[in-house]
Design brief:
94 residues, mainly beta, 49% strand, globular
Length: 94
């Protein structure tokens, strides 16, 4: 967060490890309806899956963090060729 010079946060609201098997499907959702929450999705491995945020697909790249407003619609996109997909979802209140 310091390297990104990101918003200061006051609380970690949620911390979830997501695991998707091959050919599972995610559903469109928000992580929190409040306007003062931000979601981070950390991807430890490159896969052929990713995350769709507000209709735009962002592929999984090793070590990458996707940061967006928690009340934005997003979906985990499962792998087609790789065995599985893992991501860490963190929701922060600021």
């Amino acid at each position: 967060m310091e390297k990104l010079n990101a918003l200061p946060f006051t609380k970690i609201s949620r911390l979830i490890l997501n695991y998707y098997n091959k050919d599972q499907e995610g559903i469109n959702h928000v992580d929190h309806s409040g306007d003062n929450y931000v979601s981070l999705i950390y991807t430890p491995l490159t896969t052929d899956g990713g995350t769709t945020i507000l209709g735009k697909f962002y592929p999984d790249k090793m070590g990458q963090v996707k940061i967006f407003k928690s009340n934005w619609l997003h979906t985990g996109v499962c792998v087609k060729e790789d065995k599985a997909r893992v991501s860490l979802n963190i929701v922060l209140r600021y």
